[in-house]
Write a structure and sequence with these properties.
Layout: E1 50-51, E2 61-65, E3 70-77, E4 80-85, H1 96-104, E5 110-117, H2 127-133, E6 147-156, E7 159-160, H3 166-176, E8 185-187, H4 195-204, E9 209-214, E10 227-231, E11 234-245, E12 253-262, E13 265-272, H5 278-289, E14 292-293, E15 307-310, E16 315-320, E17 322-323, E18 329-330, E19 333-337
Parallel strand pairs: 1-10, 6-8
Antiparallel strand pairs: 2-9, 3-4, 3-5, 5-6, 6-7, 9-10, 11-12, 11-15, 11-16, 12-13, 14-15, 16-19, 17-18
C-alpha cells in the first residue's frame, strides 16, 4: 500500500520572513519562591583548631603556619566594613590599616576569617608586640602595625560559603587576596610540604607551630577536628588567681599564680615569674589590686609567702615547655593578658 505524501516541513521558527520574537512574559506567580542572594550573617562562630601532638598524614590535609595574635572576622558590606573579634565585639576602630585594606579589596560583600598579628624583626608573629600596639589589655589604642593574615572566606559576593568545601573556599580567597602582598590584609599561604617536615622547619625557625586543615571539610564553629593545630612551643590561656609581692621585681610582682579548668572547677597549676616588662607589670599590678579578695579561688598547698589573692577574671597567655609529674607548668613565661572581647579559652585539663 502506497504511503500518503508527507507534509513539507515547517520552518523551525515558523514564518522564516517574520521577525524573531520571544514569547510574552507571564506575570510572576506570587506563590513561586524567588531565587535571592544569601543574607549575610551578622556574626559567624569561628572554627577552632583542635590540639594534636603531631601532624596528620594524607593528601586530604593542607598546611599553614600558625599565627600568634587575635582572631578576627572582617565583614565587607555596601554600607561599610566591620572588624569583629572572636567574641563578636566590634573592633573596627582599633585596626585602621586593616580597615583601609578591606575597603580596597575588589569585592562588594565578603566575610574574611583571619588573625591580626604584629611581626618581629625575623618576620615571626609576636603576641606581646600586638598587645603593646593596642595599648595593653583594656587599652583603647589603635594599632597601625597590625596586619591580618587571612586564611578563609565565608561569604563572597552575596553567597554563603560555609557549606562549601575548604578547597573551593581557598580558591576564591586566593583570587581576592593574592599571595605575597604587602597590604594590611595578606594571604596566609598554604605550604606544599609533608606535615612532619613542615613542623620540624617551623620549630627550627622559632614559630609557634602549624595548622592542618581538611581540604574536604565545610566550615563550622567550635573544635570539630576539621582544623588541627600542632605546636612547637606550648602556649595557652590560664586564669590568674593571685600574685606574690616582691619589692625587687617589676611592678612588685614576684610571680603570678595560675589556674586551669578541670571538670568545671579551677585548679592550681603553678606560677610564672618571667616575661614581664616594667610598664606591663605596673599596669597588671593596678588591675590586680582592684580585684583583691580574702580567699583563693583554688586549693593552694604551696609554701610561697606574701601572697595576694584576686578574683579569677584575668586570663594570661602563658608560654611553657612541659608539665611536671604533679600537674604544674614547667619553664613558664608570661606573654600578655588576653582581652575579654577575644574570649580566649582557659586551658582544660582532661
Amino acid at each position: 500500500m502506497t504511503k500518503p505524501p508527507r507534509k513539507p516541513p515547517q520552518p523551525l521558527l515558523g514564518d522564516a520572513e517574520a521577525p524573531i520574537r520571544s514569547r510574552p512574559r507571564k506575570k510572576r506567580d506570587p506563590a513561586q519562591p524567588q531565587l535571592t542572594l544569601d543574607p549575610m550573617p551578622a556574626r559567624i562562630d569561628p572554627c577552632l583548631a583542635l590540639l594534636k601532638p603531631k601532624p596528620p598524614k594524607g593528601r586530604q590535609w593542607a598546611f599553614e603556619v600558625k599565627w600568634d595574635g587575635y582572631r578576627l572576622a572582617v565583614h565587607i558590606e555596601p554600607k561599610g566594613v566591620r572588624i569583629l573579634t572572636r567574641g563578636g565585639h566590634d573592633w573596627t576602630a582599633r585596626f585602621p590599616a586593616i580597615l583601609a585594606a578591606a575597603k580596597r579589596l575588589p569585592v562588594s560583600t565578603a566575610i574574611l576569617d583571619g588573625e591580626a598579628v604584629v611581626f618581629d624583626e625575623q618576620g615571626r608573629s609576636d603576641f606581646g608586640r600586638l598587645q603593646q600596639s593596642l595599648g595593653g589589655r583594656g587599652g583603647n589604642r589603635s594599632s597601625r602595625q597590625a596586619v591580618m593574615m587571612a586564611f578563609d572566606i565565608l561569604y563572597f559576593d552575596g553567597h554563603d560559603l560555609m557549606e562549601t568545601e575548604f578547597t573551593a573556599r581557598r580558591h576564591l580567597l586566593e583570587g581576592l587576596v593574592p599571595a605575597g602582598g604587602e597590604e594590611a590584609i595578606r594571604l596566609s599561604e598554604e605550604i606544599e610540604a609533608d606535615g612532619d617536615t613542615l613542623f620540624r622547619i617551623a620549630c627550627e625557625h622559632g614559630l609557634e607551630g602549624i595548622i592542618a586543615k581538611d581540604r574536604n571539610s565545610t566550615y563550622r564553629g567550635g573544635r570539630g577536628g576539621e582544623w588541627l593545630k600542632i605546636k612547637c612551643i606550648q602556649s595557652d590561656g590560664f586564669v590568674i588567681v593571685g600574685y606574690q609581692r616582691s619589692s625587687s621585681a617589676f611592678g612588685n610582682i614576684g610571680a603570678l599564680l595560675l589556674a586551669a579548668r578541670k571538670a568545671g572547677q579551677l585548679v592550681y597549676v603553678g606560677s610564672v615569674g618571667t616575661g614581664f616588662k616594667a610598664d606591663e607589670a605596673m599596669k597588671l599590678r593596678a588591675m590586680m589590686v582592684k580585684r583583691k579578695v580574702s580567699a583563693p579561688a583554688v586549693r593552694y598547698t604551696g609554701r610561697r609567702k606574701n601572697l595576694i589573692w584576686i578574683k579569677p577574671k584575668l586570663v594570661a597567655e602563658i608560654e611553657y615547655r612541659a608539665w611536671t609529674h604533679d600537674g604544674k607548668l614547667r619553664h613558664a613565661s608570661f606573654k600578655g593578658l588576653r582581652e575579654e572581647q577575644d574570649e580566649a579559652a582557659v586551658y582544660e585539663i582532661e
